[in-house]
């Protein structure tokens, strides 16, 4: 390392500052005004050597802008190390380094002493890097290209670029270099090099070396020219390094010079093989002089060691290029690459340790364990800084994730008022994730509050409530909103239908009551008529009995008719009077039968009207049943939607249960009414059959009474004949006796008919009474229907639709 003999003023200030930080007398925590005003140019880099700050002194000498520097990587600065250690060495080793470098700033190029100080700020775990650019007080003390050329080898003569451009050449050299070479400043313009085939095919492979002898026939001098391709770390590129040595023996003294042309050819082939990367080439020993065989054998042994070590290095590098890191490079312990292989094995050990640490770290992270820490023991430098950086990264990732987990858990418990902690730092995308989580809470709070408002209105019976159209909802909340609004609409429509049906049912019940009252009145009238018929039939029966008794008396009087004609005349007069009364009674009986027939017809028409009304009631009951079924289905859907809504739909679930219960009651009521109506249908059919039978019997009895009237009229005529011909009864007494017997027989038949008429009238009265009782039962059922309608109407009156 090259240092100034006298420490510069900036160097002394930098040394003092670095010493204070190293000893802990200066509490370095972050970039502050004191560093910004420090007279020495300073850069602050993170553990990845990304520049975060530059002080005023650096911006002044470099010409960079502060905005340009932030985020720039140190490798993008044009810094060429000439001697000492670089900033990368400080990052890898974790110790203070110093080196001389040429830096090309926008304001100009210059030489600086670059010192790097890795340190960990107070309160942090990730290291940072302070880089000082110290301007020397005496710049000429820094090395030049000539110094670099002389430091490579004592015999160094020419340093040139790969294209032949001369960078440095020994001054005062006695070797004559052609003038055109010096004029063009290109060593490859020399014919001795440009005409050599090996030089023309030279490649940019560090370590390639070509040796040959150039004979100058004019000066009779021979030169040994050695051309090597060298990788110069200070210049960060390959250059040509030429050594030209004058041979002692003159060109013309060939007699004493051994013929080494074969050896020279073998060496040239060996050099070409090595230049091509072929280390399997071996020199032939048999054709060489004995004094050269040990040297050639040593060269072959060296080539064998080089081949084995180079093959081991090639295999290791191939594995690394394929993504596999070998445990070590297995190669012979002796050889030119032994030091490189040992250093590479040490680097592989550190890399394997780092890979194992990263794999363990990655597996823990993949398992969801973000609290794991990567183990940094056994690592150093950049590897240790990288693991420490990953640990810090996990800390910064885990804290927001834990906070998000807490808020998500609160959201899962429906606590949408929970928010992300503002005191926690949210880097990068975590800031937008925090805003998203807070937005979710705010939006869900608004939606749940609106659902609670609408559900409360539903619970209070107001189904006109709807979710606000100003509240924008998406996803599943759109379905919930539509379902909740549809529940209100459908329940409102169902309640309206129920209310209308209850009103219609009430009106129909009132109409049925009126019709039943009319039918009841007509049945009572029919009962009265039937009772009158029965009473008249009894009167007729009594009259017939009297007529039979009179006939018997007439029969008894026939024996003394001759002696008692006067009595017969009187008896005939009484008989004529009784027959006249019989005609009157028979006529009245026929009129009563006709009245009963008309009443039975009225009852039949009334029963027909009642039957039509019952059919209307059945239609209404069917409508109510359909409404109850729809209400029950709607209540089931409402209960399902309430179950989907969870705890917020419990209130509405109670309402749905009550609506379902009311629908079941309505359905049971309608079922009972239907059964009652069916019984009424059966009763009315029975009444109609009875009335039809009564009408048939009345018609039959009407014919019988008509015949009886005719008989009575005929009997009156006969009695009148008897009265006028009473004086002649003596002769016709036998005929009269037979006629009286016939009249007696007919009277008995009339008595029997009247008994049957009285019995039928009693049955008709009983049928009317049964009809009255059935009508009373229908009236009771209709009143129950009316009460149910009033209950339905009262139940839905509390709802607002």
UniProtKB/TrEMBL annotation:
A Pfam family (short name) is HAMP_2
**Gene Ontology cellular component annotations, sorted alphabetically:** membrane
Task: Show the InterPro entries listed in the entry.
Answer: HAMP_dom, MCPsignal_dom, PAS-like_dom_sf, PAS_4
A biological-process GO annotation? signal transduction
Q: Which Gene3D superfamilies match?
A: 1.20.120.1530, Methyl-accepting chemotaxis protein
Keyword check for Metal-binding, yes or no: no
Q: Methyl-accepting transducer domain: which residues?
A: 522-751
Recorded hits in PROSITE patterns, A to Z, give: CHEMOTAXIS_TRANSDUC_2
Q: Does the keyword Ligase belong to this entry?
A: no
> Taxonomically, which superkingdom?
Archaea
Which keywords does UniProt give here?
Transducer
Q: Which SUPFAM superfamilies match?
A: Methyl-accepting chemotaxis protein (MCP) signaling domain, PYP-like sensor domain (PAS domain)
Q: Which family does it belong to?
A: Belongs to the methyl-accepting chemotaxis (MCP) protein family.
Tell me the protein's name: Methyl-accepting chemotaxis sensory transducer
Species of origin = Methanospirillum hungatei JF-1 (strain ATCC 27890 / DSM 864 / NBRC 100397 / JF-1)
């Amino acid at each position: 390392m090259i240092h100034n003999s006298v420490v510069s003023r900036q160097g002394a200030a930098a040394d003092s500052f670095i010493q204070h930080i190293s000893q802990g007398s200066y509490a370095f925590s972050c970039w502050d005004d004191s560093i910004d005003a420090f007279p020495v140019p300073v850069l602050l880099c993170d553990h990845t050597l990304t520049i975060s700050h530059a002080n005023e002194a650096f911006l002044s000498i470099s010409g960079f802008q502060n905005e340009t520097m932030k985020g720039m990587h140190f490798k993008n600065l044009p810094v060429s190390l000439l001697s000492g250690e670089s900033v990368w060495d400080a990052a890898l080793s974790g110790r203070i380094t110093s080196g001389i470098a040429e830096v090309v700033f926008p304001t100009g190029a210059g030489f600086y002493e670059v010192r790097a100080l890795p340190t960990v700020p107070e309160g942090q775990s990730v290291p940072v890097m302070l880089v000082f650019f110290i301007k020397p007080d005496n710049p000429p003390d820094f090395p030049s290209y000539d110094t670099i050329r002389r430091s490579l080898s004592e015999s160094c003569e020419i340093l040139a670029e790969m294209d032949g451009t001369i960078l440095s050449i020994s001054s005062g050299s006695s070797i004559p270099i052609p003038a055109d070479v010096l004029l063009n400043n290109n060593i490859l313009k020399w014919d001795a090099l440009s005409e050599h085939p090996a030089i023309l095919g030279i490649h940019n492979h560090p370590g390639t070396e070509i040796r040959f002898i150039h004979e100058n026939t004019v000066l009779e001098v021979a030169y040994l020219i050695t051309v090597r391709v060298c990788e110069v770390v200070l210049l960060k590129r390959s250059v040509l390094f030429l050594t030209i040595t004058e041979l002692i023996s003159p060109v013309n003294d060939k007699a004493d010079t051994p013929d080494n042309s074969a050896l020279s050819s073998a060496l040239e082939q060996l050099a070409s093989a090595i230049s091509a990367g072929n280390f399997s080439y071996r020199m032939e020993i048999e054709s060489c002089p004995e004094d050269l065989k040990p040297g050639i054998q040593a060269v072959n042994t060296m080539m064998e060691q080089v081949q084995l070590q180079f093959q081991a290095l090639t295999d290791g590098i191939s594995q690394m290029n394929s993504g596999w890191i070998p445990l070590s490079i297995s190669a012979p312990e002796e050889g030119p690459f032994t030091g490189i292989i040992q250093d590479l094995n040490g680097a592989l050990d550190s890399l394997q340790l780092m890979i194992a640490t990263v794999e363990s770290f990655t597996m823990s992270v993949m398992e969801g364990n973000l609290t794991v820490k990567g183990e940094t023991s056994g690592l150093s430098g950049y590897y240790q800084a990288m693991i420490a950086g990953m640990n810090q990264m996990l800390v910064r990732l885990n804290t927001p994730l834990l906070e998000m987990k807490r808020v998500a858990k609160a959201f899962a418990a429906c606590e949408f008022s929970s928010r992300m902690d503002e005191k926690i730092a949210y880097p990068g995308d975590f800031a937008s994730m925090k805003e998203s989580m807070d937005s979710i809470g705010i939006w869900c709070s608004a939606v749940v509050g609106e659902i609670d408002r609408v559900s409360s209105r539903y619970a209070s019976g107001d189904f006109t409530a709807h979710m606000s159209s100003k509240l924008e909802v998406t996803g599943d909340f759109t379905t919930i909103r539509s379902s909740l609004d549809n529940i209100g609409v459908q329940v409102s429509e169902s309640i309206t239908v129920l209310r209308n049906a209850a009103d219609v049912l009430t009106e129909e019940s009132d109409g049925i009551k009126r019709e039943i009252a009319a039918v009841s009145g007509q049945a009572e009238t029919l009962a009265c008529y039937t009772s009158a018929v029965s009473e008249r039939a009894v009167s007729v029966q009594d009259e017939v009995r009297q007529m039979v008794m009179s006939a018997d008396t007439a029969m008894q009087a026939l024996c003394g008719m001759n002696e008692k004609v006067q009595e017969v005349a009187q008896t005939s007069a009484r008989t004529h009077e009784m027959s006249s009364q019989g005609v009157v009674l028979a006529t009245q009986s026929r009129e009563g039968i006709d009245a009963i027939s008309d009443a039975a017809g009225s009852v039949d028409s009334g029963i027909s009207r009642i039957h039509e009304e019952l059919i209307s009631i059945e239609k209404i009951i069917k409508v109510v049943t359909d409404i109850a079924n729809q209400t029950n289905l709607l209540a089931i859907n409402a209960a399902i939607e309430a179950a989907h809504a969870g705890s917020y739909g419990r209130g509405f679930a109670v309402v749905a249960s009550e609506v379902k219960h009311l629908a079941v009651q309505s359905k049971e009521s309608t079922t009972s009414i239907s059964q009652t109506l069916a019984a009424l249908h059966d009763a009315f059919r029975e009444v109609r059959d009875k009335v039809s039978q009564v009408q048939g019997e009345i018609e039959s009895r009407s014919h019988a009474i008509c015949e009886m009237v005719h008989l009575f009229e005929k009997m009156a005529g006969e009695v009148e004949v008897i009265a006028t011909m009473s004086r002649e009864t003596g002769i016709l007494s036998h005929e009269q006796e037979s006629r009286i017997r016939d009249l007696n027989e007919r009277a008995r038949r009339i008595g029997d008919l009247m008994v049957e008429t009285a019995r039928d009238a009693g049955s008709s009265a009983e049928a009317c009474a049964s009809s009255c009782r059935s009508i009373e039962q229908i009236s009771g059922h209709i009143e129950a229907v009316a009460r149910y309608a009033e209950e339905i109407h009262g139940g839905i009156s509390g709802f607002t639709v």
